[in-house]
């Protein structure tokens, strides 16, 4: 089976796209053409995909990226058995129905709900866009196959669609036990994801000998705050790090932080970082988003703190610092639950089988020679 995968919004090393879905397809013997913003993100494509380079869609100026994406998707899907797109924007750049293979939209988030935290959008647009997004989603459901990242997303659609959750790779054995002098946040940094609280937390933890590591890209509005905090010696901000390396950096931390705010796009989902911390044997400190709080409480792998309450977050970190047996037990319970339920290789075969059925191509194809990067 030949599959064309496209994104102009996500980083080419996105864990869901590259390291779970594409890797699963390659492991099953299928061929992948990958349309992604390699140059923009300074990424060298993996040797076993056929890459097509496109500009990245950033902020409100996305017309150039979508024009390039339309041409790239047309080229990439010309001889494909299946096309998978990962951005709602690409629904506007698909080849015509007569000139494209069966097409899948992977629904990563509640797009309409996410508009409320897009600071680059004028307020009038944030109010006007949600109805348009819902109409675009309904049109996509009529014309395309859909994959959902969360069960809760089913409510937005009239039919039931396969759910491919954001799981991770979980080591067979727990990594090093949690230490006592470092906490970590892995993921994109923004105001709605608690960047302000993280900086203040770092300030208050410094007298107690606990340092904060931030691993992830940041929204433009929050970058000056992070740079100032790093210059002040409050924290280390590493910027974007590929997921597999970022998770190794989490190993041995005292706690993994998920201080997301109570916004619509986060209420329906379990933050992937919670599962990733658990997979690496790190206790979780999370705000009370329903799925995150339920997971942490049921498994007993961390603490839940109120939204925006830095005092509570400080207390949770120091409690773990002072109780080695507690943090080791929490880390072990989290790892065991992640290995049992959220190990991606356990779910990958079902994902691949579903795509093969949609493409009507149950058998694998002969690998194609490696290709150079193609500019769109």
Automatic annotation (TrEMBL):
Domain of life: Bacteria
Alphabetical list of Pfam families matching this protein: Glyco_transf_4 (PF13439), Glycos_transf_1 (PF00534)
UniProt source species: Thermocatellispora tengchongensis
UniProt key word Cytoplasm: no
Glycosyltransferase found in the keyword field: yes
Domain Glycosyl transferase family: 173-334
UniProt keyword list: Glycosyltransferase, Transferase
Glycosyltransferase subfamily 4-like N-terminal domain: residues covered: 16-164
SUPFAM superfamilies: UDP-Glycosyltransferase/glycogen phosphorylase
Record-given protein name: Glycosyltransferase involved in cell wall biosynthesis
